[in-house]
Amino acid sequence: QVQLVESGGGLVQAGGSLRLSCEASRSFGSAAVNWYRQAPGKEREWLATIYEYGRSEYADSVKERFIISRDNVKNTVYLQMNSLKPEDSSLYFCWFLRYRGKGTQVTVSS
What we know:
By secondary structure, this protein is mainly beta. The chain is built from no helices and 11 strands. It has strands at 4-7, 10-13, 18-24, 33-38, 45-50, 56-58, 66-71, 76-81, 90-96, 99-100, 104-109. Strands 2, 4, 5, 6, 9, 10 and 11 form a 7-stranded mixed β-sheet that branches. The protein has a 4-stranded antiparallel β-sheet with strand order 1-3-8-7, with no helix packed on it. Strand 7 and strand 8 form a beta hairpin.
């Protein structure tokens, strides 16, 4: 069993930045780690994936604004979110293998 705990969410004005963290109870090993978000009444949206050696992929909606990174020593994956927009307001969570965290809420005011 793996526990994933997200943190770093909050209320921010449009144009601002937040850095989310996803800390795992054990090493991610060689597996990819993903960030998703889901707003009430909307479909879950994949945002970004980071692979073992740092290669990353992004959804078009966040490309060039969000940066995913990982610290394998700290068993933590980060999501740096810049130029935030009101439509980025959502519950953000990480997913690793078959495990997902409870998420952290991000609210962007206009």
